[in-house]
Structure to design on (360 residues):
């Protein structure tokens, strides 16, 4: 009898527990369903653009407003810093007479100072003052004639930081011929500022992608990490996919933009130290917390090659493709390997100053 009473008591308690659990489950609110709100602005920096905010369904209008602000930020930075726009601040600086102070916005002043620091950090491999050299090689491509060494020397003499002085309100150029091009840093900076617009809206996640260079944060619409394809310089080659919880990915290389002179293809990336195109590195992909940093180092490593890995800031990781097909080599930093979902075959891990080959 006591045994039956004990069993009955246990059954009653178990039933009560199940009811309690059921009531708790029904009374606890479910996490709101997240959706990705996307926008694809046209004519931004001459390339494609994708903006995404991940929000609960009920907050789609707020997400749309955030994406409009992000687009406005991208267009504002472009309007300030593009050498292709005659009315931009950088164009006004380039065309101003020497020794006359040119007022600049806080954004442009900040980026010029960042570029100056980057020139020092990269040993001169990244230098926004090389617009005279860029113009020289662009003109050579249009004529189909290589520039002479004298032409290169003249352009290099006008390409250095000694010819510009940054002030509290703007900049002053010294000497004739100075011209800056922020193309290797302005896109990354614009991406960072646009992503802040999405973050400030309270979105659970978001991404800003301009021409394949991007920055992301938080949750993607599906899964826990953002999936990013590594752009390959060779159409038939797959370099793998990155899993990025947050941060920026930028790629630079000689495969997308180049000029052909006298039957030889030359990269649009100029080595500021020699004044000649940097053609040895087909592509570089950099992962960093911010797109500004990734943008700078993708260009710098295109000039420096693997030796530049020793100069990378601690928070940045890189993958470098060397040589033409089919003799290409692919190397990366140890930290970059952690982002790779499916490493390519015969990947070389660059451990400090001792590269070690490992299977993909």
């Amino acid at each position: 009898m006591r045994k039956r009473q004990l069993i009955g008591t246990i059954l009653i308690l178990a039933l009560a527990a199940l009811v309690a659990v059921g009531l708790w489950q029904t009374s606890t609110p479910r996490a709101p369903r997240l959706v990705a709100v996307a926008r694809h602005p046209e004519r931004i920096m001459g390339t494609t653009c994708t903006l995404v905010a991940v929000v609960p369904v009920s907050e789609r209008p707020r997400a749309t407003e955030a994406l409009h602000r992000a687009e406005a930020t991208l267009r504002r930075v472009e309007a300030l810093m593009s050498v292709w726009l005659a009315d931009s601040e950088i164009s006004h600086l380039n065309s101003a007479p020497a020794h006359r102070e040119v007022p600049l916005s806080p954004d442009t002043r900040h980026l010029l100072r960042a570029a100056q620091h980057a020139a020092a950090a990269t040993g001169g491999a990244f230098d926004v003052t090389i617009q005279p050299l860029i113009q020289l090689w662009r003109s050579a491509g249009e004529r189909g004639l290589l520039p002479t060494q004298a032409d290169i020397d003249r352009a290099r003499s006008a390409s250095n930081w000694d010819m510009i002085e940054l002030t509290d309100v703007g900049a002053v150029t010294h000497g004739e011929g100075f011209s800056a091009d922020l193309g290797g840093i302005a896109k990354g900076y614009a991406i960072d500022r646009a992503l802040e617009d999405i973050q400030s809206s309270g979105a659970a996640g978001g991404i800003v992608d301009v021409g394949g260079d991007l920055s992301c944060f938080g949750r993607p619409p599906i899964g826990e990490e953002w999936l990013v394809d590594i752009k390959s310089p060779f159409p038939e080659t797959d370099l793998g996919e990155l899993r990025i919880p947050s941060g920026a990915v930028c790629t630079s290389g000689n495969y997308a933009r180049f000029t052909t002179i006298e039957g030889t293809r030359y990269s649009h990336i100029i080595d500021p130290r020699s004044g000649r195109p940097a053609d040895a590195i087909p592509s570089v992909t950099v992962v960093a917390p911010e797109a500004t940093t990734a943008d700078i180092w993708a260009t710098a490593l295109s000039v420096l090659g693997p030796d530049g890995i020793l100069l990378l800031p601690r928070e940045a990781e890189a993958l470098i493709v060397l040589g033409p097909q089919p003799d290409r080599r692919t190397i990366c930093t140890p930290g970059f390997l952690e982002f790779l979902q499916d490493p390519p075959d015969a990947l070389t891990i660059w451990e400090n100053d001792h590269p070690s080959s490992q299977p993909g």
